[in-house]
Amino acid sequence: xxxxxxxxxxxxxxxxxxxxxxxxLRHLGDSELHALEDAAVLDPVDGRLALTTDSYxxxxxxxxxxxxxxxxxxxxxNDLAMRGAVPLYLTVGFILEEGLPxxxxxRVVASLAATAREADVRIVAGDTKVxxxxxxxxxxxxxxxxxxxxxxxxxxxxxxRPGDQVLVNGAVGDHGLAIMTQRHGLRFESPIQSDCAPLxxxxxxxxxxxxxxxxxRDATRGGLAAVLNEIxxxxxxxxxxxxxxxxxxxxxxxxxxxxxxxxxxxxNEGKLVAIVPGDAATTVLDVMRAxxxxxxxxxxxxxxxxxxGAVVLRTAFGxxxxxxxxxxxLLPRIC
Amino acid sequence: MNQGFRAQAFxxxxxxxxxxxxxxxxxRKPIAIMEFCGGHTHxxxxxxxxxxxxxxxxxxxxxxxxxxxxxxxxIDLAIALGxxxxxxxxxxxxxxxxxxxxxxxxxxxAQGASVEIVYSALDALDLARAHPDTNVxxxxxxxxxxxxxxxxAVRAAAEEGLTNFFLLSLHKTTPPAMRAILDGGEVHVxxxxxxxxxxxxxxxxxxxxxxxxxxxxxxxxGFEPLDILLSVRDLAxxxxxxxxxxxxxxxxxxxxxGNAVARQLMAEVFRSSDARWRGLGVIPASxxxxxxxxxxxxxxxxxxxxxAVSAGPSxxxxxxxxxxxxxxxxxxxxxxxxxxxxxxxRPIGPCMVSAEGACAAHYRYGRSLS
Lengths: 335, 370
Known about the structure:
The complex is a heterodimer of chains A (335) and B (370). Chain A is built from nine helices and 13 strands. Chain A is of the alpha+beta class. Chain A folds into two domains: 143 residues, CATH 3.30.1330.10; 158 residues, Phosphoribosyl-aminoimidazole Synthetase, Chain A, domain 2 (Alpha-Beta Complex), CATH 3.90.650.10. Chain A has a seven-stranded mixed beta sheet with strand order 8-10-7-11-9-12-13. In chain A, strands 1-6-4-5 form a four-stranded mixed beta sheet. In chain A, strands 2-3 form a two-stranded antiparallel ribbon. In chain A, helix 3 runs parallel beside helix 4 and helix 6 packs antiparallel against helix 9. The N and C termini of chain A lie far apart (49 Å). Chain B has a five-stranded parallel beta sheet. A four-stranded parallel beta sheet of chain B has the order 4-3-5-6, with helices on both faces. A two-stranded antiparallel sheet of chain B has the order 10-11. At the A-B interface, helix 8 of A face helix 2 and helix 16 of B.
C-alpha cells in the first residue's frame, strides 16, 4: 500500500481498492460498509429523525486527549445528542492531501472506529478523495449523522424559560488550551488533555431522569460564552452566570494567564450546557455527577426575565459585567 | 509562571477593597494615573477597578498596545511585502485585522497575498526551513517583551545560515513613548503604572527618569487586580508625601537590572532608531532596527518594495480617534465611533482590533446593561 498517500489512491482504480480494503475496512467493520454498495440501505426507524453534518479541519491532527478521527465522531454524535436524539448512524468522508503518511491516516481511522464503538453508533457509508499537495492541509474529515428523537423530548435553544437553571457537565477550556499549548510548545508537568468525548450516553441518562430538559448545547467553538449568548438570543431571555461556580482546571487557568486568554471563550469538545426547569436542576445534577463524563458537573447560573438577549457574569471578584460573544479567533497576547 | 503562583490569591475581593480604600484615603486631591500597558487596561476593565477607584483616582489608558501603535504606513509596507510573489509575511494574529490606509493584511490575504499567522518568531523560522524556495518575512511587532525572542530567531537564522528568513522590525521601546506623552503636555499625569512584563526585561531602573526628570512616581505593576491596586495605593502615597520614586510592586517578576540575557541579545541584534508611532508621531530613539552585523536579515534592505498608495480613506479620515486614545487624551467611549460604527466585529481603528487595545477592553467590559 506504500508509506504515503498518493494521488492514485483516489483514482478509483486498484490502488484505491487497496487503500479501502487494506486500511479503512480493516478498522470499520459495519456490514453495510463492507457490502461496498453505492448507498447504505437501512431498516425503518420509529420516531422523529435527527440529521446533522460537520467538517473537521483541526491542526494539529493529534493532540493530548484526542485526534481528528475521535473529534469527527464526537462532534457529530454530540450535535445529535444536543437535540435529544439517540445517535444511530454516521457517514464519513475523508479528503486526504497527497503525501500524508499512511501511518497517520491509519491512526486517525483506528481512533475514529474506536470512538464510534464507544458511542454505539454505526458507520454505514464513506468516501475518500485525494487532492494534490497544497490543496488541503494533510487531512480533512466530514461526518454526517442520523439519530432518533424519543417521543416527548422537545429540546431547542429557543426553549429557555425564566426560572430555569444552567448546568455544565464539568471544567471548561480543556480542548482549546490543549490545542493552543501544543501549538505554542508550552509544557506542563502533565499536559492539558482535550475533553473530546461522545456525550450521547450522558444525555440519555439526563433525559431518562428529566425528559423536560429545555435546552442542550455543546460548548464547542467560542466556548461557554458563545453558547450562553446564543441561547440568550434565541430564547430572548437573560442569563446570569456565577464565575465562582464554573469549574476550570488549574493547568488551563495557568495557561490562560500565560497566553492572555479567557477560558470562557476557549473551545470544548466534551462539554454541554443544559438548561432545565428550576425544580429539576438538582435531580439532573445528581445524574450528571453519577456519569463518568459529568463528575465535575455544576449549576453555574439561572435564566431571568431581565436583560433579555444578554449574559451577565457575576465575577468571583464581586463585580458584574457583560459576558459578550467572542469577536474573532482566540489570539495570544503580544505584550 | 512563578512556582506556587495562585491567581486566586491575587483576586481576593476583601483585600482589594482594603487597598481601594487605602488608595482613595491617601489621595489628598484627585489624581490621574496612566497605565502604560494594554494588559493593565484589560485587567483594570475586567475587574471594574476604574470605577472602583473613581472619582478620587482617575486611571488613564496609555500607548501600551504594540499592535495599536503600529503606524498605517508600516502596515501598508507589510501588505506590499505580502503581495510580492516571492514573499510570505509571517505575523502575530492580532496584526492581520488592523487596517492600514487601504485595508488590512487579512484583506490582502483574501485577495491572494501570502500571509501566515505564527505564534512566535520560532514558528516563522520553521516556516522558512520548510519552504526554502519562499522568502519568509517576520513582522517584528512588540515592545521589549517580544523583541528578545525575535532577536533570538534572527540570531538562530544567522547561525544556521538560513538565507530566506527576514525581519521587518517595527519594534518599539517604551520609555521614550512615556517621555513623549509627558513632554507633549496634553494630559496631566500624576503617576505612572509601569508595565510589568516590559520591565521584567528592561529592569525597574529604566523608569528612573520619571521621578528624576519629571517628578512623577512610577510603580511597576503585575497584572492581577491586587497587583494593580497595590501599585495604585503606593503611587497615591508617594504623591501625597511628595516622594516621587520608582516603586517595584511586582517583585515576583521584576528586578532593578532586568533580564541580562535578554538585554544582551537585544543589544547584539538590534540598534536604536527613530520610530513612527500611531498617535504620537516620530519619536527619536524609540525603535529597534537590526544592527549592521545582521543587515542581511533586514527585509527593508533586501526587498525594495514600496507601500501601495492608499486605496481608501485612513481610519483617522473616517473619524477614528485611536491616536487620542493612545495618548490618554480621551477615554475610548468619548470617540464618536465607539460601540456604534466601530466594534470588535467591525473595527475601524486598531485599539478596537487588538485584545490589548483600550477600546476593545472598554467595549468588552465597560458597557452597562442598559
